[in-house]
Amino acid sequence: MGEAAYGWWSPVNISTYGGEIDHLIAVIHWIMLLLFVGWGIFFFYCLIRFRQRAGQKAAYQPIHAKPSKYVEIAVIVAEAVLLLSFSMPAWARFKNEFPAEKDALVVHVVAEQFAWNVHYPGKDGKFGRKAPQFISSSNLLGLDPDDPAGKDDINAINQLHFPVNKPVIVHLTTKDVIHSFKIPVLRLTQDTIPGTEIKIWFEANKTGQFDLACAQLCGLGHYRMRGAVSVDTPEAFAKWMAERESEVSGTGNEY
Ligand SMILES: [Cu+2]
Questions:
Q1: Which residues make Cβ contacts (< 8 Å) with residue 35, sequence separation at least 6?
Q2: What mean pLDDT do residues 22-50 have?
Q3: Tens digits of per-residue pLDDT, 164-189?
Q4: CATH number assigned to the domain comprising residue 199
Q5: Do 231 and 189 share a domain, yes or no?
Q6: I want to staple 229 with a disulfide (CB 3.0 to 4.6 A). Which of 13, 144, 146, 210 is the partner?
Q7: What span, in angstroms and rounded, lies between the C-alpha atoms of 17 and 40?
Q8: How far does residue 180's CA lie from ligand 1's centre (Å)?
Q9: What is the pLDDT of residues 83-139, one digit of tens each?
């Protein structure tokens, strides 16, 4: 699925903030290349300059040379610039500047060994209350049977559909162990932590079929913890949602 999205380089970027992350990755790689070439040249210089020769003895005192100190200071400064002026502002914007819930699609994702439960609120737009004691094989989300808001809720297992050009807010939780919610084309990776709800957001600017993967080794079935991401046109999303809604009411809702 979505094979066209993956070539020899990074997967295609469909995230509104993905460009910023790609830029950071590129800058880091150029700096790593510079360090690799620089230290490589120095290494070969030392191999030749200090090779074994007749009449030469090894010296065991440390060398106090200025250039090596300057190089190390330059590396520290470069890393500080990366951290303080690229990584931290990008991270702060992602964590603090959430789109308004009224302008966004809000989805709850509950990870478990070994699947992604994608919880949509259904027709009423309200999420039913969830609690661990209600979890069973016919109620994977743990919806409270006494909460009317949960009657029409939808659990799209391993299927994450959302419309293009609209912010999506995901409330991430896990039933069991640490998993990691990763959508490479959105440049998004977030661990799910037991006992904690973590909010993330994204906005896609291209439609298509992509992958959701678990990026944290979470047990023997980790490899099959794969979801289908479908970025739809608003019409296609509404149609898909209407089909899911009719399935829930059609089965009389087993929750
Ligand atoms: Cu997992």
A1: 75
A2: 92
A3: 999 999 999 999 999 999 999 999 99
A4: 2.60.40.420
A5: yes
A6: 210
A7: 35
A8: 6
A9: 998 889 888 888 888 899 899 999 999 999 999 999 999 888 899 999 889 998 889
Closest CA to 255 of 154, 172, 115, 110: 154
Ligand 1 centroid–CA 110 distance in Å is 11
Q: Which domain holds residue 162?
A: 101-250
Residue 166 Cα to ligand 1 midpoint, Å, equals 27
State the Cα–Cα distance between residues 141 and 27, nearest whole angstrom.
Answer: 42
Interval between CA 150 and ligand 1 midpoint (Å): 26
pTM, to two decimals: 0.82
| Confidence check: pLDDT of 81 > 50 | yes
DSSP conformational letter for 127: P
Q: Say how far apart CA 255 and CA 253 lie, in whole Å.
A: 6
